[in-house]
Amino acid sequence: MDLELRHLRALCAITDAGSLGRAARVLGYSQQAMSAQLQRIERYFGEPLFERKVSGVEPTRYGAEVLAQARDVLDRADAIGRGRAGRAAGVRQALRLAATNSPVLSGTVVRIRSRLPELALTVSSVYASSEIVELLEKGELDAAIAVDYPGLELRHSDAVAHRAIVIEPSFVAVPAHHRVKHHTEVALTDLADDAWFLTPDDGAGWPGVFYAACESAGFTPAAIHQFLGDQLQLQHMIADGLGISIVQATIRPIPGVLVKPLSGTPLWCRYLLVWRREGLTDEVVETLFGSATESYRDLIAQSPHFHAWASRT
Questions:
Q1: CA dist., res. 207 & res. 245, Å (int)
Q2: Helices 104-115 and 282-301: crossing angle, nearest 10°?
Q3: Which of 83, 98, 147, 237 gives 242 a disulfide partner, CB atoms 3.0 to 4.6 angstroms apart?
Q4: Local structure of residue 199 (DSSP, 8 states)
Q5: How far apart are CA 235 and CA 95, in angstroms?
């Protein structure tokens, strides 16, 4: 048989659904027809793409490689179709995207520009998630990457929607010569006498959640330096021994800085895609969300300290 886009879509549907039966229902096939199509596709590739299990199916190692390329091909094909439609209409839809202090942004923007080339994308930095909500409510933004914290869900009206990208633990960055340099994990109480660099109020719960965690650990931070600036500058100050800081789990430490997980994981942060319901199609929202989640997976893949922590939990 000749491999067609519909075959690639079937593979993606099977992966996303986790079973042939659910994928068949999504695509409007019978389970028998879905199974027969998968057998033809696997014959084309010359080996199984999925492992059959009691709970459903999972991609084999080779299947995962095929799936990654299939998604890329489908994204490009869809982008071609959207670009043609946009040129025919003679207009470019604007997409005003903002983000708080998030390493997810760069990879997200790269993917959006590749997958939605017909959009006129503009990007702005807005630190406070509460301000992001305000701008969305006023119609001055279309979508954003924001944050909130467990038990403190981001507040907004029905004009705005949100969807969780990921919930990640917060780690701590310390100088390479710090007394905890040989610790696999660091207790907050081990840092009670240190000076801290803290970013200001983000309108979503920070730094209140930090102070609450310190209080639960039985101490008040010895000294606080308020800092809102370049993350590289922050790391240089940490490397110079001027203080320590709570950091994102996917941060890439520079020489002279160690990133350590906190014992018991007392601090968590949730990244959100937030958007204005009016004006964005479901397709654009799904593309934004998929781009953000893939960007985060790339960051995780390049984060050995995160992998080490995850392997122990």
A1: 12
A2: 130
A3: 237
A4: -
A5: 33
**Which residue in the block uniquely carries the two structure tokens 């969807």?**
163
What burial class does residue 263 get, using C-beta atoms within 10 Å of its C-beta: 0-12 exposed, 13-18 middle, 19+ buried?
A: middle
Residue 246, strand partner residues:
172
Domains in the chain and their CATH numbers? 5-84 (1.10.10.10), 92-163+269-312 (3.40.190.10), 167-268 (3.40.190.10)
Q: Is the pTM of this model over 0.85?
A: no
Dist CA 70 CA 76 (whole Å): 10
Distance CA 194, CA 161 (A): 39
Provide the residue type at 7 as one letter. Answer: H
Q: Which amino acid is at 280?
A: L
Q: Do strands 257-261 and 223-226 pair parallel, antiparallel, or not at all (unpaired)?
A: unpaired
194 HSE (CA, 13 A, CB side) = 24
The C-alpha atoms of residue 258 and residue 268 are separated, in whole angstroms, by 19
At 128, list the tokens.
């406070």
174 in Cβ contact with 126 (< 8 Å) = no
Strand pairing report for 94-99 and 120-125: parallel
DSSP 186: B
- State which amino acid sits at residue 145: I
Q: What is the DSSP letter of 153?
A: P
The residue assigned the tokens 């080996």 is 47
Q: Are 60 and 48 in contact (CB under 8 A)?
A: yes
Q: What is the pLDDT of residues 245-297, one digit of tens each?
A: 999 999 989 999 999 999 999 999 999 999 999 878 888 999 999 999 988 88
Helix (H) or strand (E) holding 164: strand 160-175
Closest alpha carbon to 237 in 225, 248, 249:
225
Mean pLDDT of the chain: 89
> Could you give the count of Cα atoms lying within 13 Å of 270 in the half-sphere of its Cβ?
15
d(CA 249, CA 172): 8
